[in-house]
Design goal:
Elements lengths: L1 E7 L2 E8 L2 E4 H7 L8 H7 L3 H9 L16 E2 L9 E5 L3 H7 L9 E5 L4 E2 L4 E2 L8 E2 L2 E7 L8 H4 L3 E8 L2 E2 H4 L15 E9 L9 E6 L2 E7 L7 H9 L9 E3 L23 E6 L3 E7 L1
Parallel strand pairs: 5-16, 7-13, 8-18
Antiparallel strand pairs: 1-2, 1-4, 1-13, 2-3, 5-6, 9-12, 10-11, 10-16, 11-13, 14-15, 14-17, 17-18
């Protein structure tokens, strides 16, 4: 199931991407006299997608009034609008470690965080800050937690996942390495776009997904999540040993090789206003953002 969160005519909406297009769940539920949560955040917290599946099964695919007229004109919201935590994993692909030339292969996940001010949505224009010059992209699979968990074992970790989305861990490298803490370079306003869809965990295998990043149509990153050093189950289990994970929490799982930081210094052309970045993950979708 592929869900999305949007605003249309000033009203919050939940949609589901199907072959016919994007089914407006609010309209379909009203037509079928069903009740659904008011937002995707509430759907995630409830953990119950049965009513949505019922609406999908019952909706008339020929009834055009139940579908968004033009998905391209929809104002998207981030996949999750108000997570309690945004936890990120650094250096989780061997190829990225090799290009970064910064550390040895980690024995445990390297964690840092972003805050809600960094969230951005599909097609949102992201303003580059006046501070910093070395703006970079990082294509990443994002885990969306669906159950409250603490100290969970790896064998049970994936059962706590609501779904997965596409993320771009935008970074300002000169700020990131100002000190040993990466925070300044990671959580600037709009520097955590997530979307456009949330694919529910029952319909996807996170351990084998192609992942790609393009800048102005040019492929910069191309890899597969099978190359992660720490897979999704390991990451969730590890984090849960130190903090309680709650529904709606986001986990950025790390980026593969191909970031600008990994280029020889004389070939590094940092992101600039006007650049368009597309991050695509197999079976989920393509997240697009333009810089200003």
């Amino acid at each position: 199931m592929k869900l999305l969160h949007y605003v249309q005519d000033g009203k919050l909406g939940i949609g589901v991407k199907v072959e016919r297009g994007v089914l407006d769940l609010n309209k379909a539920a009203k037509r079928l006299e069903e009740e659904i949560p008011n937002s995707l955040d509430e759907v995630i917290k409830s953990g119950d997608i049965n009513v949505i599946q019922k609406i999908i099964d019952s909706a008339n695919n020929e009834d055009l009034a139940l579908f968004l007229e033009n998905e391209e004109e929809v104002e998207y919201l981030p996949a999750v609008s108000n997570p309690e935590k945004i936890v990120c994993v650094g250096l989780n692909y061997l190829s990225h470690i090799e290009e970064a030339k910064t550390v040895d292969v980690p024995e445990t996940p390297i964690l840092f965080n972003k805050f809600n001010n960094a969230l951005a949505a599909q097609n949102e224009i992201i303003s580059l800050p006046k501070v910093g010059k070395k703006f970079d992209y990082e294509a990443e699979l994002v885990i969306i937690i669906g159950k409250e968990i603490k100290d969970v074992e790896e064998s049970e970790a994936l059962s706590a996942v609501f779904g997965y989305s596409v993320g771009n861990d935008l970074s300002v490298r000169d700020l990131q390495f100002t000190s040993s803490q990466w925070l300044l370079g990671k959580t600037l306003d709009g520097f955590a776009p997530v979307g456009p869809y949330v694919v529910t965990a029952d319909s996807i295998d996170p351990s084998n997904l192609d992942i790609e990043c393009k800048v102005n149509g040019e492929v910069r990153q191309s890899s597969n999540t099978k190359h992660m050093i720490f897979n999704c189950a390991t990451i969730i289990s590890y984090i849960s040993k130190y903090m309680t994970l709650k529904p709606g929490d986001l986990i950025f799982t790390g980026t593969p090789e191909g970031v600008i930081l990994g280029y020889p210094e004389n070939e590094q052309e940092w992101l600039k206003p006007g650049d368009e970045i597309e991050v695509t993950i197999e079976k989920i979708g393509t997240l697009k953002n333009r810089l200003a």
